[in-house]
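Case study 2.
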Amino acid sequence: MIIRLATIKDKEYILKLFDEFSVLLGAEDVPSEVGGEILDEVLSRKDTMIFVAEEGDKLIGLISFYVLPNIRHGRKRGHIEDTFVTSNARGKGVGGALFSAVKDYCIKNNIKVIKLASGSELTGAHKFYEENGGKTTERFFRFDI
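Prediction:
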């Protein structure tokens, strides 16, 4: 397994992973139908990145990572938006390897804090984050506009 930053060449495979993730979550939107332009933007920016896990010629997982300025603390912090491992690769260390790659990036770039939000029903994800050093520190709120 190789962990690397995604490129535009990965677009079709990334969208397929997001489609699988959306089905798992019961989401209404189909990323391969609505997410192409946003993915192009993410892949072109320096403050957003997608780390992918590749095995053979297939992408088996991803983690979306955003670098955000934090004026109050005078430094940048990280934000993880999506972490997903395809069903046949779960339990094989893929998520841990992706998370380690993000932490390594943060160490190299003097990012001291990573935050993320996780759906209340995703108890398996919560366990994974706790096993990787995460702790519940605040409440998040969503506003649908």
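The CA atoms of residues 133 and 141 lie 23 Å apart.
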